[in-house]
Design goal:
- By secondary structure, the chain is of the alpha+beta class.
- The protein folds into 2 domains: 119 residues, Jelly Rolls, CATH 2.60.120; 81 residues, Winged helix-like DNA-binding domain superfamily/Winged helix DNA-binding domain (Arc Repressor Mutant, subunit A).
- 37% of the residues lie in helices and 24% in strands.
- The chain contains 6 helices and 12 strands.
- It has a 4-stranded antiparallel beta sheet. Strands 2-7-4-5 form a 4-stranded antiparallel beta sheet.
- A hairpin with a 2-residue loop joins strand 11 and strand 12.
- Helix 3 packs across helix 4, helix 3 packs antiparallel against helix 6 and helix 4 crosses helix 5.
- The longest helix has 26 residues.
Length: 225
């Protein structure tokens, strides 16, 4: 029998599915633009998006919003509730008419005592997000605004986009204000680079949505390196 190489890499284990360990909960509906929680009414629950999209952001010391991320169906948010901090600058708002399922942190803790794999599943989600935030911090350190915007559009297209037959990806119509809050610049600068990307054929946008030619934009990023 052939010896196993000590450097062989074991196949990756599938991630735990938190939904396999969570009981159904009450579904709560929010209208587009409605606040789910904010610094004045902090969350005490974990949320699962059933339908719609949610923007989670933080308020900087100067009052500007910094978008943490956008969450879509089957994604969790609100994990900062576990810290039970007296002052939290995080807020969540429905970007569309949205349906959410919620569990209080106490309920989650009680379920974990009975189903420890739920803790593993939630930990895996947090580790994945930490890795993504690390990439984003790296981009803030080394990329100019145009490259940060390009990387953000590509990431949103991978998570939230719908591939088309011509190789493009269709996304919902993110406002330039939202993109500026995610990239870390002004709305005017985002508008400038969105117009530049549109002139150069990397995307199209209107009130109906954004059509991104993702492979072409990736090639542009590679050429800028």
């Amino acid at each position: 029998m052939a010896a196993t190489s000590p450097t062989a890499i074991a196949p990756q284990k599938p991630l735990e599915d938190p939904l396999a360990h969570l009981p159904c909960s009450t579904i709560v509906e929010y209208r587009r633009g409605q606040m789910i929680y904010n610094q004045d009414q902090p969350s005490t629950s974990i949320y699962l998006v059933i339908d719609g999209k949610v923007k989670v952001s933080r308020l900087a010391d100067d009052g500007h919003q910094v978008v943490v991320d956008i969450y879509q169906p089957d994604e969790f948010f609100g994990e900062s509730a576990f810290l039970n901090l007296a002052h939290r600058s995080e807020q969540a708002v429905a970007l569309e008419n949205t349906k959410l399922m919620t569990w209080t942190t106490q309920e989650i803790e009680e379920i974990i005592m009975r189903r420890p794999k739920l803790a593993v599943a939630l930990l895996q989600i947090l580790v994945q997000r930490t890795i993504e935030f690390g990439h984003r911090i790296e981009s803030f350190s080394v990329d100019n605004i145009a490259r940060r915007l390009a990387r953000s559009l590509i990431r949103f297209s991978e998570r939230l986009g719908m591939p088309e037959d011509d190789g493009s990806v269709h996304m919902v119509p993110f406002t330039h204000e939202l993109l500026s809050q995610y990239v870390g610049t002004s709305r005017e600068i985002v508008t400038h680079y969105m117009n530049q990307f549109r002139r150069e054929g990397y995307l199209k946008y209107s009130r109906k949505g954004i059509v991104l030619y993702r492979d072409a934009l990736r090639d542009w990023l590679a050429a800028q390196a």
